[in-house]
Amino acid sequence: MSLKLALFDCDGTLVDSQHAIVAAMEAGFADQGLPPPAARDVRRVVGLPLVDAVARLAPTLSVTTHEAISEAYKAAFYRNRLAGTHSEPLFDGVVAALDALEAAGFLLGIATGKSRRGLDATLAHHGLAHRFVTLQTSDRVAGKPSPDMVFAALAESGADAAGTVVIGDTSFDILMARNARVRSIGVAWGYHDGAELLAAGADLLVQEYAALPDAVRGLLVRD
């Protein structure tokens, strides 16, 4: 029997990190003496590798400046976490959905634009580190919409493409899944709207976590 893998995005899918991300991005731009990008624009780039996200927010700046903003962002994010001003609450229903998927025989994994340090800290804070058999981050593998994080997750978990579904809140997640030729489910509580996720190629869209386990089983479980 082949292994089945539910591969989750993190920011906007498992945790609502928008305020922490916006605050760190504002600090990153301020470090370079630049006005902050609008919060709505920052939310639009969540999920991309950090330097790519900064480049989308400020395409006329040099690569060197993009990299400097990114380093200042990471430093600000870390400071805010240590100071306790950092907040990445779980979305309602996450733990119950993970329980249900594991009970149904699914392996769980994450593919995220976060750094590995940031992901480890988030999972440790919520007591979730032990739940996931594979953790893929864009500081170690090519980021979204490249399929490489999916391929790495398949290799590490032992699942195959036919038994894998990506679960995410942005078009970058859905495009990553398409590029890897795996199924995808869009979630309506994140940072891109549902119509955009469907247009990007999501197989399904769910409105709440309670609906997710059945949606995953419906896509992947065969008689």
UniProtKB/TrEMBL annotation:
Top-rank taxon: Bacteria
Protein name: Haloacid dehalogenase
InterPro entries per the UniProt record, alphabetical: HAD-like_hydrolase_sf, HAD-like_sf, HAD-SF_hydro_IA, HAD_2, HAD_sf, PGP-like_dom2
Molecular function in Gene Ontology: phosphoglycolate phosphatase activity
GO-annotated biological processes: DNA repair
Gene Ontology, cellular component aspect: cytosol
PANTHER family according to UniProt: HYDROLASE-RELATED, PHOSPHOGLYCOLATE PHOSPHATASE
Organism listed in the record: Niveispirillum lacus
